[in-house]
Amino acid sequence: MSSILLVAACLVLMVPAVTATLSDIPQGGVIFIGEQGLNLNGVAAGTQVAWWGAGRSPITDAPTDLQTISDPKNFFVSPTIYGTETGVWYIYPDKKPAFTIKDPTLAVRAINVRTGREVTSGVISRGDQVKFQVETNMYTMTERPGVNGVPITIHVTGPGGIEYTSLTDINGKSQSLDPVIVSSSLYETGSVWNTGNAQYPEGSYMIWAECNANNMKNEYPVGGKTTTRNTAAGLTVEAGDVTVTLIQTTTAPTSQQTGVIGSPAETATVTVTPTPTTLATTGLISTPLGSPVTSPTTSPTPKAGGFTAGTAALLLLAGAAIALRHQR
User: Fold this and answer.
1) What's 256's DSSP letter?
2) What is the pLDDT of residue 318?
């Protein structure tokens, strides 16, 4: 009897566990253009689905488009068919929601942890820490059963074309970028990159992000949708401190001031000229203004029309001569 129980237990262990995946879609759930191999729950093979365009009602109007789902276990959100027809699709003619199609969005930013400023397309002092901020609407994949986030890969390519699949943080710990599991519309990784580490040379680094969940990037490689590569930003890591020049014009008299930016070695020069207000920025402010701005010492300008010392002396002499003449 015990041997029978042992065999039964082994058979149970050999049965693979049923786990939810990114491709398992609840009826009425959100799916994205480009996703492939989806399992549409609640939709039978051969079912027609209908879409009503803007300003049209499923209650009173005929569908704008009708499609037949031939294989709901392997559904492809084709950009050709569904690319411009986002929103709720209904089982037809029952008019129950089958799924909701959205156009994916994706953006990535590099943030200087010390200053809180975005440095995705700018300059950072070597030794500063970097975190990444991912903004996407694909976080709604967390609404699928058992899914805790959407996998986003952050790419960092350094000087010489070296691509980093992970970065070393201030504690010397390796932080993987492939993938980063994003669970909210605006997600931050925390401090993952110590730019002062010896393995990261000075120079330009290209940063971009991609999402290939359910093969969507391969099927829909559109910038700002499933990838940001065609708008990849360049971050430059420089030694020492960053010097910037701000040029601002207002209607005030011309003057010049010097302030401190972050560390003592960082300075900024502000030139003010009497022209209409405009603003032009050269370079990157990597840190907020620190100590108060000090004004330069200026020498007073003599006023036009005033008495000089020689003129005063002549007037005194003339007055004395007139007084003596009257005494005589």
Assistant:
1) E
2) 53
Please state the pTM of the whole predicted model. 0.68
Could you give the CA distance from residue 32 to residue 48 in angstroms, rounded to a whole number?
19
Q: Are residues 83 and 182 located together in one domain of the fold?
A: no
In Å, what is the CA distance from 240 to each residue of 109, 125, 167, 286, 321?
Answer: 23, 6, 21, 12, 74
State pLDDT tens for residues 268-326: 444 434 444 333 333 333 333 333 334 444 444 444 444 445 545 545 555 555 554 44
Same domain, 166 and 215: yes
Where in the sequence is the domain holding 258, given as residue range(s)?
244-282
> Is 311 inside a domain boundary?
no
Q: What is the tally of structural domains in the chain?
A: 3
Pairwise CA distance, residues 230 & 58, whole Å: 39
Contacts 24+ apart (CB under 8 A), 217-226: 217/34, 219/34, 219/35, 219/36, 219/76, 219/78, 219/79, 220/33, 220/34, 220/79, 220/104, 224/105, 224/106, 224/107, 225/33, 225/34, 225/103, 225/104, 225/105, 225/106, 226/34, 226/104, 226/106
Say which DSSP state 250 is in.
B
The answer to the question of residue 324 being in a domain is no
Buried b (16+ CB within 10 A) or exposed e, 69-89: beebeebbbebeebeeeeebb
Residue at 13 is within a domain: no
Are 149 and 50 in the same domain?
A: no
- Residue 11 tokens read as 């058979």
Q: Which amino acid is at 89?
A: W
